[in-house]
Design brief:
heterodimer; A: alpha/beta; 5-stranded mixed sheet
């Protein structure tokens, strides 16, 4: 009994001490938790004060070939700038302009967007872009090639800053030309030369597409075809327009019809859809920007030397106007007017444009485009840019760039004009009627 | 209100309206008030956008322009009448919608009749329904690549069979592109009609079929005089739904041709998209949308008496 009572007392004591321990433990836990919560709150507060999040809408994240590259660019920037976090938004090339206009109008644009061509102007016309004149660092401003800012001013203010340049040239496959009995070192210089070469290719290699040219109906297609129209002397609308119902435009449309009738072109394909067959050696000529080299090499694994042995690039063959023209499809960076962190945004933009790592690993390697800087300040990068292709673009093709009539009516004009081009290349309606129909639609804009 | 008791199988509502009315007619209206929340939600999610579209259609409103919208009355509607592209798109829409549905319904009916009571018809049904389950945009891209003049499987097959001597630009010829786009739509719609009509065929009373057989009715007469009358309402309802669906078909057409070449495959929905989201001309796009809505409403209203007819 006594033993039982002792055991009971010991058990009570143990219970009491456990209870005390539990209580103390709980108290300790409660204090620790409170400290944790407090410190977390303070840290969050501090972090909220220091951390800036920038939203960056771009197409790089939407493309498989550039996704990892742009992620690395952002990671490197964040590591070097711990106070700035970049939240990327992936939007496809075809959609980004439209989405930015809609987002500006609905009041939720990002801080920064990558834009190009008419999209930049359309977004700027909504009043949603911040003027960059006072934001661009003077050193950066001085180092950007003056021509690259062309068309990026509205009411005297810079609306965007060029990130890279991607001018279009006439690419030719030397091996296909040689197989057609042509001199691979003498690419066509005039439209007549081009027609001779296309015929030779078609006659000798029926499975090869002689000329890769975009004939879809979208604003980019008008951008791409504008230089061809101009070399025929046609300016269907905009400043100094000859109109669509002009002899020059009819000459251009007749030429396009001839290309289609002789099966020198494959109508309806986007230019991007010619690139895989080009990489397989199935396209003789391509009307494409500088980035074609990167695409071909990423598809078929060619080395640089193999590429230079196979492909060359020259300015557009000269048409009846006696002049050669080109278009620019490089990307620009814009900062939105409602952004609360414009200085931080410009810091990121400056990094994208002038960081040697970004230029080397992203702009040149992945985008296969050229930087907009006069001087990279890095001999290694200068060596990478000293190639037959980049040199041809820098010295021969870039000077042929022609301005485009970008603005609020460009998209509507593109629909009308490219629909007419499609009618010319796919139907048998008289060219005069097609030209008149285009003009009638342009008059309605 | 007497609930739970006098509800018969034949009563039109679970409450048994007849019983309710006779028990206490004064209290019936409160049940009608119960639909008010639904009506309010419908007014908000359907009525408001429609009303807003009407308002926009009377304005000169470009989203890419900082100037505020300007009231222009019926000008946008007036412009539509002289808009060649609008008329071409309307014509294409009618051909595309009615043509595709008519052919798909006929094919669905034939397949349903052929596979009726055959061995493996269930497995075949599962297989046949797959095209209907594939998203429209995916179908559009599939057909786009199948139709390619260089490298497309359609040309490869037809060329190897010796039917054509050189590749046909199916989607890039003004004269055949609409038909080529319709083939894609028909391919996707036929399984729907097959499913609908198979189910309807299995619902025909056996006694009717047996009686016809006893009377030595031939196959053609059996189909024409016995089965088709039973399928009539199913065909009508299915066709109505599918015509409305085709009127609004955007994904496959955009994926295949974007309305081209020229305007050969441009339908109203493609035209409205171009006006609204490429040119940001919301006023004119809204006027086009209103005409499109009125056309669909008119078609549906005209269709209803046919459906009610015994």
């Amino acid at each position: 009994m006594a033993t039982a009572s002792r055991l009971g007392a010991r058990a009570n004591l143990k219970e009491a001490s456990m209870s005390l321990l539990n209580r103390k433990g709980l108290q300790f836990l409660a204090v620790a938790f409170a400290c944790q919560v407090a410190s977390f709150g303070l840290c969050s507060l501090a972090s909220a004060q220091e951390q800036i999040t920038l939203h960056f809408a771009n197409t790089g994240l939407a493309e498989e070939t550039t996704r990892e590259g742009i992620q690395k660019v952002v990671a490197d920037f964040e590591a070097a700038n711990p106070g700035i976090k970049i939240q990327m938004e992936a939007i496809s090339f075809s959609d980004i302009g439209r989405q930015m206009v809609l987002r500006v109008r609905s009041g939720n644009p990002p801080d920064i967007a990558e834009l190009d061509g008419n999209d930049t102007i359309m977004v700027a016309l909504t009043g949603g872009l911040a003027p960059l004149d006072n934001l661009i660092p003077p050193d950066l401003m001085k180092n950007i090639k003056p021509g690259d800012f062309a068309g990026l001013r509205i009411d005297g203010k810079f609306i965007a800053i060029p990130w890279n340049t991607a001018t279009a040239g006439l690419w030719y496959n030397k091996k296909i030309l040689a197989a057609a009995g042509l001199d691979p070192n003498k690419p066509p210089r005039t439209i007549q030369d081009l027609m001779v070469a296309l015929k030779a290719v078609k006659d000798t290699q029926p499975d090869v597409i002689p000329l890769g040219i975009d004939t879809t109906n979208r604003p980019f297609s008008l951008t791409s075809n504008w230089p061809w129209m101009k070399t025929f002397g046609a300016i269907p609308f905009g400043e100094n327009a000859t109109g669509a119902n002009s002899p020059e435009m009819k000459a251009y449309l007749s030429w396009m019809r001839e290309l289609a009738e002789k099966h020198y072109i494959d109508p309806g394909r986007k230019i991007g859809e010619f690139r895989p067959p080009a990489a397989q050696g199935k396209v003789a000529f391509m009307w494409d920007p500088v980035l074609l080299q990167g695409v071909i090499q990423s598809v078929n694994g060619m080395t640089n030397q193999q590429f230079y042995d196979t492909w060359g690039v020259v300015p557009m063959p000269v048409g009846p106007s006696g002049k050669s023209y080109s278009y620019e499809s490089g990307q620009q960076l814009a900062i939105f007017a409602v952004s609360k962190h414009k200085d931080a945004a410009m810091k990121f933009v400056d990094y994208l444009i002038s960081s040697p790592t970004v230029i080397g690993d992203y702009t040149i390697k992945l985008l296969s485009s050229m930087p907009t800087l006069k001087e990279t300040g890095d001999p290694k990068l200068d060596a990478e840019l000293d190639t037959p292709i980049f040199n041809a673009f820098a010295h021969d093709i870039s000077p042929t760039l022609t301005p485009q009539p970008y603005g609020p009516k460009f998209a509507g004009a593109a629909t009308a004009i490219m629909a007419g081009v499609q009618q010319a290349v796919t139907g048998d309606e008289p060219i005069d009627e097609i030209a008149a129909s285009i003009q009638e639609q342009l008059n309605r804009l | 209100v007497k609930l739970g008791g006098a509800v018969g199988i034949g009563d039109p509502s679970p409450f048994g309206n007849a019983a309710l009315a006779s028990a206490n007619p004064r209290q019936v209206p409160w049940i009608h008030w119960m639909i008010v929340p639904t009506v309010l939600v419908l007014l908000l999610v359907v009525g408001y956008p429609i009303a807003q579209t009407f308002i926009l259609s009377t304005q000169d409103y470009n989203l890419a322009d900082v100037t505020p919208p300007r009231y222009v009355g019926l000008k946008n509607y007036g412009d539509l009448f002289s808009d060649r592209v609008f008329w071409q798109s309307l014509k294409n829409t009618l051909i595309y919608s009615f043509g595709s549905v008519a052919i798909a319904a006929a094919l669905g009916l034939i397949v349903a009749l052929l596979t009726e009571n055959t061995w493996g018809s269930r497995a075949l049904g599962t297989l046949l329904v797959l095209p209907w389950a594939v998203p429209g945009v995916v179908v559009g891209f599939l057909f786009r690549y199948m139709y390619l003049a260089n490298g497309g499987i359609v040309n490869a097959v037809v060329l190897s069979l010796g039917i054509i001597s050189e590749p046909v630009p199916w989607l890039n010829s003004s004269s055949i592109s609409l038909a080529a786009v319709m083939v894609c739509c028909i391919w996707a719609l036929t399984p729907f009609f097959y499913l609908l009509l198979s189910a309807a065929l299995s619902g025909i009373p056996n006694e009717v079929i047996e009686s016809a057989r006893v009377d030595r009715t031939g196959t053609a007469a059996m189909i024409y005089h016995i089965k088709l009358p039973y399928l009539r309402n199913h065909l009508l309802i299915g066709s109505l739904l599918m015509v409305i669906g085709c009127f609004n078909d955007f994904g496959p057409i955009w994926a295949m041709t974007q309305g081209g070449p020229g305007y050969a495959t441009s339908t109203l929905v493609v035209y409205v998209y171009r006006l609204a989201f490429e040119q940001f001309n919301f006023g004119y796009a809204s006027a086009t949308g209103v005409v499109w809505l009125v056309l669909l409403l008119g078609f549906t209203i005209a269709y209803m008496p046919i459906l009610r007819k015994e």
